[in-house]
Amino acid sequence: MNDLSSFPSRTIWNDSEMLECVSIIPEVPDTATFAFRAPSGALFDFLPGQFLTLEVPVPGGPVHRTWTISSSPSRPRSLSITAKAQGASVATRWLLDNLKPGMRLKAIGPAGRFSHLHHESDKYLFISAGSGITPMMAMTTYMYDLGTEPDVVFVNCARRPSEIIFRERLEHMASRVPGIDLKWVIEQPDRFHPWTGLQGRMNQLILGLVAPDYLEREVFCCGPEPFMTAVREALAGLGFDMDRFHQESFSAPVGTELPLPEDVVPDEDTKAEIHFAASGSSTTCSETDTILAATRNAGLNIPSGCTFGVCGTCKIKKIAGEVHMVHNGGISEDDIADGYILACCSHAIGSVTIDV
Ligand code: FES
């Protein structure tokens, strides 16, 4: 994690404490940055690029949603997320319409492995679309605050210039540090505002224009799935070493189900038993049901976010029994060794007891 030992207060925030909203900054249409502090004064320790899951109290019951932390751990007294409401957004719409400074929300995390600190390199290419810019903002701010000279080509694709999030802040950083090379790519200009930069959709031609030396760079990509697919295919088609390509996504790949380990033949007809230690009840389910689904069917609640093993929101303690879990990085080896599992991607084998 980030080294906070030089700060006078060494208490590090953990998610047993609610977060208090301290400011809301409108960024572009339907998009705002929400800054939080720990009421206890604890500091935030995380890696730039990691995410946080918030419990959002929408009408009808709380929902859990995951956002990348857009602030940098080099500024550890507060933590921000930047949320953009899409058409059907419920949680982000609630934040935009209802969250006010002073209100407190439950948060889970930070978590995630999408950080340049896990893939150290001399040169980076950060390529994002829309609100996928948030982890790139955190990583770039972190490098800027460190005071060393980074070498980052920072590409963001937006529908229009007026929809580029963090534009002024990034241009300010780039004006002071020559190693931050900004490239905006828009789909169409704003009316009555001439645009002299790049225009079009991401493809091999634009990639070569924005970062001619892309073969030498560690690439981080975040945005809607079709955008990340386009970038991935463009790079693969150009002979890029895809081990150096990293992407972040909070939605399950379309049509993809988590594979079960090879030693398990999922069998709908094989029954499993789940015992809920805290509530003292039990349920029977099929081995092919996830523990999350079986728990819900039993009328109990485990908070969840992504539902495919990334965000870590559904982490619970397994007290006894055996499960098969195939996650996507949402739980650490230490937590697994301590008996924790992710309910959304764990299947009970035989009889299992969990702390719910
Ligand atoms: S809900 Fe995200 S890891 Fe289970």
TrEMBL record:
Q: Which SUPFAM superfamilies match?
A: 2Fe-2S ferredoxin-like, Ferredoxin reductase-like, C-terminal NADP-linked domain, Riboflavin synthase domain-like
List the Pfam families hit by this protein, alphabetically.
Answer: FAD_binding_6, Fer2, NAD_binding_1
Q: Name one GO molecular function term.
A: metal ion binding
Its keywords, alphabetically, are:
2Fe-2S, FAD, Flavoprotein, Iron, Iron-sulfur, Metal-binding, Oxidoreductase
| The protein's required cofactors | FAD
In this protein, which residues make up the domain named FAD-binding FR-type? 14-117
Locate the 2Fe-2S ferredoxin-type domain: which residues? 272-356
User: Is Transmembrane given among the entry's keywords?
Assistant: no
Regarding protein family, the annotation reads: In the N-terminal section; belongs to the FAD-binding oxidoreductase type 6 family.
Under PANTHER family, the record lists: NADH OXIDOREDUCTASE HCR
This chain's protein is named Hybrid-cluster NAD(P)-dependent oxidoreductase
- Origin species: Pelagovum pacificum
